[in-house]
Please model this.
Amino acid sequence: MRRFFILLALPAIMLCSCAAKSTQPETMPKCYTAELEMTDNGREFEAVLTRNDEGWEYEFTAPESIKGLKLSKNADSFTAELEKLKLTDNLEKLGQNSPARLIAEALDMCASGKGITAEVKDGKTVNKGVVNGADFTVTFDDGLPCSMEIGGEIGVTFKNVRAE
Model:
């Protein structure tokens, strides 16, 4: 009888252990605004990232040398603006490995959930994926992104993330 009970309980135990390992990736809202502190190979930047139905835009707030620079991307072009200067060109001219593009595309992957796996680490959900050949992680706390790492070279801290 005891063996019979153990045999009945074994599938339930196995199902519970499998469920505990799988974690659903966190998702980003489709449209949002976030303040970013970024590092790229030791260089530090700050910007406000806005994502809407048209595409994304960064407005840099630091360092002083690029303060006010706006980079934006829509479906087929990108624009760089600084004071009275404005340049618009084909999207292919914006390097696939530019930090701005990698960050935005990794967040877009988190929004869609495609190509993303997740695990729980220290009570936070860590989304993992690959963007333009670079591994990335986005750490979420209470459903909001708090940090990102791309390819061991780019780091991002998120502040004041707001769905639009």
Observations:
- The chain has two helices and eleven strands.
